[in-house]
UniProtKB/TrEMBL annotation:
<feature type="signal peptide">
    <location>
        <begin position="1"/>
        <end position="20"/>
    </location>
</feature>
<feature type="compositionally biased region" description="Acidic residues">
    <location>
        <begin position="315"/>
        <end position="325"/>
    </location>
</feature>
<protein>
    <recommendedName>
        <fullName>Tetratricopeptide repeat protein</fullName>
    </recommendedName>
</protein>
<dbReference type="InterPro" id="IPR011990">
    <property type="entry name" value="TPR-like_helical_dom_sf"/>
</dbReference>
<keyword id="KW-0732">Signal</keyword>
<feature type="region of interest" description="Disordered">
    <location>
        <begin position="313"/>
        <end position="340"/>
    </location>
</feature>
Amino acid sequence: MTFKINITAAATLAAMTTFAAPATAETLPVSGIYAAGEDAPSEFRTVVVERFDGNEGTKFELELRNAIARATIDGEDYFDVRRNTGPGEGASPVAWISGTAFSEVERLPSGTTEESKCVREDKDGKCIQRRTVTYKCRELNVRFTGEVQMLDARDELVYDRGYSTSGSQRYCANETSVPTVSSMVSGMIERFAWEVRRDLAPIQRNEDIRVLESRSDMEKALRKPFKKALKLTKSDWGAACAEFDRLNTLQPDNVTLTFNAGLCREVVGDLDGAADLYRRTLELEAGKDYPTAGLSRISSRRRAETQLAAHFAEPEDELLADGEEAQPSADSQGSGAGQD
């Protein structure tokens, strides 16, 4: 895969196409590629998921391989995921993933529970005698631990993640549904695999972010057009944003208008403009979470741009990044005749 698109333009196009349907609330559509938890794995395009040790190793290996294989950017696989090395291995930077996955199970007595049961009914089926029955209960405790390591071709460690979690379920003899070790461990394996996948690859996400609706500090003349702009977010967010921008120029010190204008910038991929307006919102109303969340999204998207550039860099790009000059091609080299 050759990644040669402008990330800002791609995010803008995704926002315009993915969110063509009206929203169900006063929101604006934000589409972006957000950073992986770790930067180092970005340099690898091919990942070989090797055997995992431990009594849950086979299950976790399969779950992790599937989780990594589902990582996509603009519908294309982020990694070439393999079970072992093979032909074409040297075509792109390769990393090897292995580790351990263990579960421990403990069943313990957990007291009793009582249930009132009818032991005698009259001719009309009405209970006329009841008896309290006592049932024994047990507790199923499951602990899962795992570790994932990623090594490069020189056997140097580029990623290491440990994981430990536990769960407990109590059940009694009178219950028809009894928890199983398999179901409990499966959930733990899925969560760990997802966390590793989230560390290794960026994630593309579309979401609806609520605009602010308060008009309490808004100039009276702006309140009616602002209300119309709010309604437009459900059918034509482009028109709504044009109005939010216009109103913000008329009252730039209003928190609601400043934040909404910033959110509009984020929608179309103008991350610098959005960040400026989010910071201005915090100056007007310090400590609020909505502009802080916006700045966090923007920071992650910028970091993702760097990760994507490293991940999809062509060999020549990598050489130039190290300060080496590109070699002239054969077509550009001549005998010297006729040259200055």
